[in-house]
Amino acid sequence: MAIPVIDFSMLNGSERTQTLAQIANGCEEWGFFELVNHGIPVELLDRVKKVCSECYKMEREEGFKAASEKLLKKMENSGKEDVDWEDVFLLQDDNEWPSNPRDFKETMKAYRAEIKNLAERVMEVMDENLGLDKGYINRAFCGGDTVQQPFFGTKVSHYPPCPRPDLVNGLRAHTDAGGVILLFQDDEVAGLQILKDGRWIDVQPLPNSIVINTGDQIEVLSNGQYKSVRHRVLPTPDGNRRSIASFYNPAMKATIGPATKLVAQAAAVASYPDFVFGDYMDVYAKQKFLAKEPRFQAVRAM
Ligand SMILES: O=C(O)CCC(=O)C(=O)O
Ligand SMILES: [Fe+2]
Asked: Which intervals hold domain Fe2OG dioxygenase (predicted)?
């Protein structure tokens, strides 16, 4: 069993209907799918791989090694700790970015513009598949009529070789809190798995593809038609897996709830509450690695 691989360019041709259906199936049955021919130039993706790996070597590897030695000792003494074998830094429009290598900033700025555009195109496909007005999801993320910017962050991760994969996770199992997540994962080193029907399934590396997954807010907006699926990263004893995850989320002040049209169509009353996304993030910060359902309950009570 493998997650669906979808040719995004087919949306523009005679196979549009089948492609829409494939994406609907990816959202409804899997919560994950892999896009090829998504329109982001391979030349840019090659540069992204290069600058992120160089940045890790130049600015982060030494620090990770020092920290991980301590972590390893702690784990060997006290058993499996609630930690992740992961090096992370976050890029947003308004935070400080690494300055090495020299072409890091320019490359990642161009990448973020492309991936943001892809996120918006994918969200419009979701609008269409759900029977919502074009732009509905994005407007909801912007807080409806008020002028707010959606949150758009890019998390650059490395999962360096781990000498004790029996003792630690690369990244513990979780669902993503936000909206649409676009992941540019390593060409060769595997590790990402999703939970499907009670079994962990590999998200196979496929060079230059972009993995899309739907976070908790898409599950809520779609009134449960689309699922936010648990996933994890396994550590590897050799290989340094690189992954670049971009999160297109609601603005912190946006109120999120099931789309009225979808509630009206559903037999049952809305199974998700309306809430302010920032409040949800407060709950998520404490409960990220737990099941998602109690988070919806907790935010309902706020
Ligand atoms: O690194 C990956 O492949 C997945 C990362 C992830 O799930 C996350 O950052 O939420
Ligand atoms: Fe995730």
From this structure: 150-250
Residues less than 5 Å from ion ligand 2, measured at CB? 176
The pTM for the full model equals 0.96
| Residue ranges of domains in the chain, CATH in brackets | 5-300 (2.60.120.330)
- Tokens 């020092």 belong to which residue? 66
Give the pLDDT confidence of 160-204 residue by residue, as tens digits. 999 999 889 999 999 999 999 999 999 999 999 999 999 999 999
Pocket of ligand 1 (CB under 6 A): 155, 157, 171, 176, 183, 185, 192, 231, 233, 243, 245
How far does the centroid of ligand 1 lie from the alpha carbon of residue 245, in Å? Answer: 6
Cα(206)–Cα(302) distance, integer angstroms: 42
Closest-approaching ligand to the CA atom of 229:
2
Alpha helices in 194-300 (DSSP H): 216-221, 260-265, 277-287, 293-300
Residue 204's DSSP bridge partners are none
pLDDT in tens, 128-164: 999 999 999 999 999 987 779 999 999 999 999 999 9
- Looking from the CA of residue 231, the nearest atom of ligand 1 is 7
